[in-house]
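Hi V.,

Quick status before I head out on leave. The structure for the redesign project is tokenized and pasted below; the design run finished overnight.
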């Protein structure tokens, strides 16, 4: 005897976790042509058959992809059987195993840890006590059928799982929080560990909070939340989400946020808050740096100055890579903002991108109000989606000028973008610069469940002042460049001060975009000479060929740089090109290839101070990207100082920094880095401490923290092992 059941969780009424007999759905109409429903074929197995010698039933399960109400051979995905254990009376038709078998179904939401696109969960068993429902001890098994894009599943229930102690010591007790939008009254929270053991929240009135004590040994522990809920019609929705906790004696209190496919690690200075609506993610709040006041757990914590969000969302027809999605996201903000100007951008070799923007509003707004508008435009996970309005703290004041930083990592596999952002008043951005960098430039995303591996590098400190850095500036000397030359020349003092803080032996030379001749005395560290060389005047050619003449100057043996004896033996070389026009390299003898050239071959890092509007057809930005340099908007003169200091620091770290050995082929979690010198912990600080530079994958010491020669340096950190494909640095 065969029987076909058509099961739709969109229309099936389920009274409890294991529900009512699914046979009541035989004649249910399809609720949407987009939905392909599960079909269950029940087959009676007689006594003596090869599957069940005592008789039983066989369940063949699959999707009715062609909607013909028949489970065709190519649609069959699962084959299960229930054998008669002898407990059922077979004296009458009503008592047969076939009629006692119950199959129930629930819809799996989008963003589920098992099915990214949603799906259906089939639970089956035998109703041995005859109450027309499956009890927990009657369930034989459950089967998950993931959608292939043709199903229309319910919206996700869980925005994210988060903890502030995702890298912690053995035997530690931590709290995991589920960020859930508008928890329905009839929801069921089911927490389990990675062995499937059921875990009970300490406070049953707050089932979204789970306190757990970790194991005694180092490793990765994964915790899972299964959230089930029912709508007014009794239809069941299910979502599972996982978060990984890394148990290690290299403790680092980072905030970890588990999204749909990725887990994101942020510096410890954040607390997270759920936001309701069409979003997979969370709002993040930094602890105040300028005052010692304690932040309070309210919608926006009092005295918060820097805030932001993390989210994971589909591409939503806004691009096929991180750069395209970023461009479209920023363009969507222009309608409500007076001006939003990109002043710096970094594109990593794996396609991840980070950028910084200056925002000027028509009318002053509180930071929380502006963040709400930004999230509504670029954080939502469906077209025309909505999120609830964030409520500002009482301490917030209206502001007109902001700094907005954002990083985007795009996955070709899931076709989703992971976005991390920060927002702060422009006049506070310098105070939070380290935190902003470690949030939107350095943090690691990894697939949920990935193990973080602890590692420690040990070095004997070298004499830092013996390290060498050489710089070649290429300055546009056409008629429109007078103001820009003045600005960069004024920053010579800041540049030299930064190099002196790192105790690096440096020299600077300048050429122009129409000549490879070294200006002045050639390479020098004399302040007044550098200031003069950086102002070559505005009588040069209007055909700006910055890359061409830099390449000519750097030619081995014959170039003006080589003839002058540079770069020096053991010195790093950085090239800074400044022009308000696009590169005009030419095509003789062949066009310039940003991916294959002497800059890439010799690992010369290139920085481009150029017009963003020329990025589509100018090679300056491309060359900066290929050499892992950075680009700066030439119009943002107020950002020159920070950019020049960054160039100096990056050069210093290349020359005198200490490698993180695992960074060469793996992804480093920068917020986990801990540094000691002769056993004493050294703080992260740009003034008197250490800094990490992900583009160079090194740590460098600054100011009074520079260790004396011979000191023992230990750098401990966690990394994600890269296997088939590189994981992303945000």
């Amino acid at each position: 005897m065969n029987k076909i059941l058509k099961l739709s969780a969109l229309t099936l009424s389920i009274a409890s976790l294991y529900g009512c007999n699914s046979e009541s759905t035989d004649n249910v109409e399809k609720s949407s042509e987009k939905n392909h429903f599960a079909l269950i074929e029940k087959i009676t197995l007689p006594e003596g058959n090869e599957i069940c010698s005592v008789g039983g039933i066989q369940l063949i399960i699959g999707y009715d992809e062609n909607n013909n109400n028949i489970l065709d051979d190519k649609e069959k995905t699962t084959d299960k059987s229930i054998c008669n254990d002898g407990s059922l009376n077979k004296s009458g038709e009503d008592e047969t195993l076939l009629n006692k078998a119950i199959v129930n179904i629930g819809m799996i939401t989008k963003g589920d840890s098992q099915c990214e696109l949603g799906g259906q969960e089939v639970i089956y068993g035998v109703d041995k006590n005859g109450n027309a429902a499956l009890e927990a001890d009657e369930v034989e098994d459950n089967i998950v059928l993931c959608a292939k894009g043709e199903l229309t599943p319910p919206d996700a229930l869980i925005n994210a799982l988060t903890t502030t102690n995702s890298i912690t010591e053995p035997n530690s007790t931590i709290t995991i929080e589920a960020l859930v939008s508008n928890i329905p009254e009839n929801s069921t929270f089911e927490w389990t560990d990675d062995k499937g053991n059921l875990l009970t929240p300490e406070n049953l009135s707050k089932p979204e909070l789970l306190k757990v004590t970790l194991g005694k040994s180092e490793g990765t522990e994964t915790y899972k939340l299964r959230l089930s809920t029912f709508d007014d019609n009794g239809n069941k929705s299910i979502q599972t989400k996982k978060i990984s906790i890394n148990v290690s004696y290299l403790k680092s209190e980072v905030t970890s946020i588990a999204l749909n496919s990725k887990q994101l690690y942020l510096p410890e200075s954040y607390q997270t808050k759920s936001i309701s609506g069409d979003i997979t993610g969370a709002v993040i709040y930094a602890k105040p740096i300028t005052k010692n006041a304690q932040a309070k757990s309210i919608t926006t914590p009092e005295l918060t100055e820097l805030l932001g969000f993390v989210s994971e969302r589909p591409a939503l027809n806004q691009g096929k890579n991180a750069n395209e999605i970023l461009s479209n996201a920023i363009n969507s903000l222009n309608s409500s903002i007076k001006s939003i100007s990109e002043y710096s951008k970094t594109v990593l070799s794996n396609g991840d991108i980070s950028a910084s923007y200056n925002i000027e509003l028509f009318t002053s707004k509180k930071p929380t109000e502006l963040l709400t508008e930004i999230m509504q435009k670029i954080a939502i996970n469906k077209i025309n989606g909505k999120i609830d309005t964030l409520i500002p703290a009482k301490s917030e004041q209206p502001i007109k000028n902001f700094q907005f930083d954002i990083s985007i990592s795009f996955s070709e596999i899931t076709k989703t973008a992971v976005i991390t952002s920060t927002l702060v008043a422009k006049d506070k951005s310098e105070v939070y610069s380290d935190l902003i960098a470690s949030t939107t430039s350095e943090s690691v995303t990894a697939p949920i469940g990935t193990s973080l591996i602890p590692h420690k590098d040990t070095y004997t400190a070298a004499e830092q002042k013996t390290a060498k850095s050489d710089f070649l500036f290429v300055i546009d000397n056409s008629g429109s460049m007078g103001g820009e030359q003045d600005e960069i020349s004024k920053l010579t003092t800041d540049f030299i001060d930064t190099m002196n803080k790192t105790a690096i032996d440096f020299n600077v030379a300048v050429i122009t975009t129409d000549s490879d001749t070294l200006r002045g005395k050639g390479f020098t560290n004399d302040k007044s000479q550098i200031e003069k060389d950086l102002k070559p005047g505005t009588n040069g050619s209007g055909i700006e060929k910055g890359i061409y003449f830099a390449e000519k100057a750097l030619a081995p043996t014959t170039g003006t740089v080589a003839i002058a004896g540079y770069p020096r033996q053991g010195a790093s070389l950085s090239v800074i090109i400044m022009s308000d026009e696009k590169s005009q390299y030419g095509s003789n003898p062949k066009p310039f290839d940003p991916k294959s050239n002497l800059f890439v071959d010799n690992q010369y890092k290139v920085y481009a101070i150029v017009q963003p509007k020329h990025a589509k057809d100018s090679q300056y930005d491309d060359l900066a990207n290929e050499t892992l340099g950075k680009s700066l908007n030439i119009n943002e003169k107020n950002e020159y100082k920070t950019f020049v200091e960054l160039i100096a620091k990056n050069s210093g770290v290349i020359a005198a920094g200490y490698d993180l050995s695992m960074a060469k082929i793996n992804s480093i979690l920068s917020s986990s880095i801990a540094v000691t010198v002769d056993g004493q912990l050294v703080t992260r600080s740009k003034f008197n401490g250490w800094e990490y530079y992900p583009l160079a994958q090194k740590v460098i010491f600054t100011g009074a923290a520079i260790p004396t020669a011979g000191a023992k340096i230990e750098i401990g950190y966690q990394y994600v092992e890269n296997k088939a494909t590189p994981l992303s640095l945000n």
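Above is the designed sequence. The chain has five domains: 2-146, 158-253, 287-450, 454-461+658-729, 468-656.

G. will cover questions while I'm gone.

Best,
W.
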